[in-house]
User: Fold this.
Amino acid sequence: MVKFKDIKGFVFDLDGVIADTSVYHSKAWHQLADELGVQWSDELADNLKGVSRMDSLELILKTGGKENDYTQEEKEKYAAKKNANYLDLLKGMDSSAILPGIADFLASLEANNYKLSLASASKNSPLVLEQLGLAKYFAEKVDPAKLKHGKPDPEIFARGAQVLNLKPEQCIGVEDAKVGVESINSAGETSIGIGDVNVLSEADINFTKTSELTLANIKKAMEVGEV
Ligand code: BG6
Ligand code: MG
Assistant:
């Protein structure tokens, strides 16, 4: 069992953990699903969390039974359209979009000498971090364009530990997506799931809100043997 004192680094998801941007992703996908005539649902929205841009489009098409209706070129156009809508929604976003407690949590990790890296599937993550004013915390980022497999594959979280020169068991991964928690777990790290406990039941530690994310709460959860 991993002990809190053996933890040296934190590997973060971005959308839905650090900032409220998963709402913007959802909005832009919902708009595209409507255009494609695919029924939107909360379940589809949950299943899209953490999934790469092209895989998200494929999932939407599959949900509507339309997976064979479009050429690769058409799919790329739709994905680009979603991204343009997403970037429009991001315009004017600033540090007020940082989720509750996250700014303090990042500062406390830095003050306590934990290493930090980013394991986001989003190619827009450098831009988002800049807009939020949090880029300084994440000198180490996994480049999603270089990955062979998306979440739930362990690759992205395994890389998140490697870029910090840490072993997976020395790291805690923080996620709001079911596929993200699966990725953390199979990479051999301790997982924190933020959000609906029923959706994120595989996480080692569950918090319903980002404001619960404090070193004291994590220590407590690990000490009571939840992990
Ligand atoms: C993840 C989001 O972080 O990034 C997904 O949870 C999104 O909703 C994915 O599809 C890819 O993002 P982007 O910005 O590269 O299209
Ligand atoms: Mg997320």
